[in-house]
Amino acid sequence: MLREYYSRIVIAGLAGDSGKTIVSCGLLSSFKSRGVNVTGFKKGPDYIDAAWLSLASGKPARNLDSFMMGFPEVKNSFLKRADKNGINIIEGNRGLFDGVNNKGTHSTAELASLLKAPVIIVQDISKVTRTAAASILGCVNLDRNINIVGVILNRAASERHSKIAKDAIEGETGIPVLGIIPKLPEKYILPERHLGLIMPEEFEQKSIFLLGIRNIIEDYVDVSKIMKLAINAPAIDLEESNVEKSSEQSLSNESDKNSSAKVKISIGYFKDKSFSFYYPENLEMLIEAGAELVPISLADSELLYNIDALYIGGGFPEMNLDELASNKEMIKTIKKLAYEGLPIYAECGGLIYLAKDIEWKGRIYSLSGVLPIKIKMNNKPQGHGYCEAVVDEGNPFYELGETIKGHEFHYSKIYEYDPDIKTSLSLTRGVGCFNKRDGLTYKNVFASYVHVHALSTPTWIKGMIKSAQQFKDSKKTIPVIQE
């Protein structure tokens, strides 16, 4: 049996907002400052936490999501991207045992079990003392296959409060308390808004903030002990990961067979403060499949004429509506090229940008109008969680009968639409656009609230490459339509 050793640790919690991201980022930054190679991973589909882990580690943090990818693919992804000569920190999501059902399927605990990774629980002890021990004891007894090696107490009110909770946990469970973080001043709290934390690139003081978080962790947490626990993590068995090729490798091999006969295609993607939700693998696998990627900001409308397809990811367009609505040149170009058949794949924030208009905080902003829909931002999530969809109508990117797994998290909702608008996805799980439908289509445009990961849906890569190639070929024979 083949085995590999990877230094690794899972930073879990008993609930969301327990302090996992602060601890994970602080540890990554602290290890890195000691000259240790570090890599961050985020359990689940979250873009934002992964972006903060990327900032702290200095390299892309990967998402590990067993619902979307399946367990073998998650293990393959970790084995491919984990640092054998460094320390890998995997930040969990929600509570340790929280999954898609009452059995905790696809939970952080299941990920830790899959990767045989030791677990440290970050526990918010606001207004509790001995009950904190009951919570940890419950985690230990719920699944004794999970190797809980330590607890970090967060939001401690005083030394007395800390001592009672620490003594109770260690006395009742035998699990060491590896750190006690006091209630932090607001300047050390990661800034949030309606979708959670803000993206690092929007935070002007991010470097100073990250240094402050590192200092907090080094002052209140036994970093050296955690490093030893990570280094002593057991070996990972490799045979399961080799049972089937990863979809990434399979796609790469298929691309190699066909790429030599084709001219390189260009795929643009919006990359700015409004559109920043892209899984690294989505972009990397497009490159591996033969595409040249062209990052496009709002000031680069002329670049759109030089690409063969456009990818508009999610993000926070609602935070920049004045700028988006006033950029008439970009709106004009997008609408023109969509009419001429440019393949456009838009997710969530991208879908918003393709709408006629959006209402938020009592104002209506005109957008590109590629799609005959009107959108309203709401105060509560309109769709939040995993999605499954079946492709039941024709579209530029997916084959009929395919099943797509992804996730959605949006406060926006389509409140008005042309009744003749075409949709291509029937949702068996999730909310989507309306009436359990998603995948709005117009010519070669596909817009959806569902975010997909290329390791979960490798056919997305094939669809992007195929649509871009067809558009590139069509430009050789069909004159461009003038206004």
Provide a quick synopsis of the model.
With 483 residues, this protein is of the alpha/beta class. 34% of the residues lie in helices and 27% in strands. α1 (20-33) packs parallel to α2 and α6 (130-142) packs parallel to α7 (159-173).
Descriptive overview:
- The protein has 483 residues and is α/β, with parallel strands linked by helices.
- The chain has 2 domains: 3-242, 3-Layer(aba) Sandwich (Rossmann fold); 247-477, Class I glutamine amidotransferase (GATase) domain (Rossmann fold).
- Strands 14-12-15-17-26-25-24-21-22 form a 9-stranded mixed beta sheet. The chain has a 7-stranded parallel beta sheet with strand order 4-3-5-2-6-7-8, sandwiched between helices. A 4-stranded mixed beta sheet has the order 19-18-20-23.
- Strand 6, helix 6 (130-142) and strand 7 form a beta-alpha-beta unit.
CATH topology of the largest domain: Rossmann fold
Shape: globular
Radius of gyration: 23 Å
Q: How many structurally independent domains?
A: 2
Mean pLDDT, nearest integer? Answer: 92
Counting H and I runs of at least 4 residues, what is the number of helices? 15
Strands in their spatial order, largest beta sheet: 14-12-15-17-26-25-24-21-22
Overall strand count: 26
The top level CATH class name of the largest domain: Alpha Beta
Q: What about the largest sheet? A: 9 strands, mixed
Helix amount, in percent? 25-40%
Uncertain runs with pLDDT below 50, 5 residues or more?
A: 241-246, 254-261
What is the CATH superfamily of the largest domain?
P-loop containing nucleotide triphosphate hydrolases
CATH hierarchy: architecture of the largest domain: 3-Layer(aba) Sandwich
Class by alpha and beta content: alpha/beta
